[in-house]
Automatic annotation (TrEMBL):
<dbReference type="InterPro" id="IPR000889">
    <property type="entry name" value="Glutathione_peroxidase"/>
</dbReference>
<feature type="active site">
    <location>
        <position position="35"/>
    </location>
</feature>
<dbReference type="GO" id="GO:0004601">
    <property type="term" value="F:peroxidase activity"/>
</dbReference>
<keyword id="KW-0575">Peroxidase</keyword>
<comment type="similarity">
    <text>Belongs to the glutathione peroxidase family.</text>
</comment>
<dbReference type="InterPro" id="IPR029760">
    <property type="entry name" value="GPX_CS"/>
</dbReference>
<dbReference type="Pfam" id="PF00255">
    <property type="entry name" value="GSHPx"/>
</dbReference>
<dbReference type="InterPro" id="IPR036249">
    <property type="entry name" value="Thioredoxin-like_sf"/>
</dbReference>
<dbReference type="InterPro" id="IPR029759">
    <property type="entry name" value="GPX_AS"/>
</dbReference>
<dbReference type="GO" id="GO:0034599">
    <property type="term" value="P:cellular response to oxidative stress"/>
</dbReference>
<keyword id="KW-0560">Oxidoreductase</keyword>
<protein>
    <recommendedName>
        <fullName>Glutathione peroxidase</fullName>
    </recommendedName>
</protein>
């Protein structure tokens, strides 16, 4: 099993199957606009620019499940990301990333890569999942891990 069977909605409302990203190394991140970790968008964009041409992509999924830190509508989130961080990687519609109403993609990711002490729940914004070119989860990173700290792992997978 891989992520390629899941259907997601882009921030502009189009539905796509993640199979569209087959063959790419992916970093999937749950994001928020009003979080202490929000400046990580800058480093995420730097990773995207450095590795996109080599087959790397970032998939950002805003979520409002942690401290009401993503209160905005999709249009506002997209505008915020572009104006403040010049984000070029794909943004998706707001989703739940934990609990019984979590998007099936996040149920899958947390099952494949449990957090600390085996926890399957995402604890905060900017939790990161690194996937290989076959759509398999390779690693999970806490929000405190800065995106540029992932360079060696990304390079290894590329």
């Amino acid at each position: 099993m891989s992520i390629y069977k899941f259907t997601v909605e882009t921030i502009s409302g189009d539905r796509i199957i993640l199979k569209a990203f087959k063959g790419q190394v992916l970093l999937i991140v749950n994001t928020a606009s009003k979080c202490g970790f929000t400046p990580q968008y800058k480093e995420l964009q730097q990773l995207y620019e450095a590795y996109h041409e080599k087959g790397f992509n970032i998939l950002a999924f805003p979520s409002n499940q942690f401290g009401n830190q993503e209160p905005y509508r999709n249009e506002v989130i997209e505008q915020f990301c572009q104006q403040n961080y010049q984000v070029q990687f794909p943004l998706f519609s707001k989703v739940n990333v934990k609990g019984k109403n979590a998007h099936p993609l996040f149920h899958y990711l947390t099952k494949e890569a449990p957090g600390i002490f085996g926890s399957k729940s995402i604890k905060w914004n900017f939790t990161k999942f690194l996937l290989d070119r076959n759509g398999q989860v390779v690693n999970r990173f806490a929000p405190t891990v800065k995106p540029l700290q992932l360079k060696k792992e990304i390079e290894r997978l590329l």
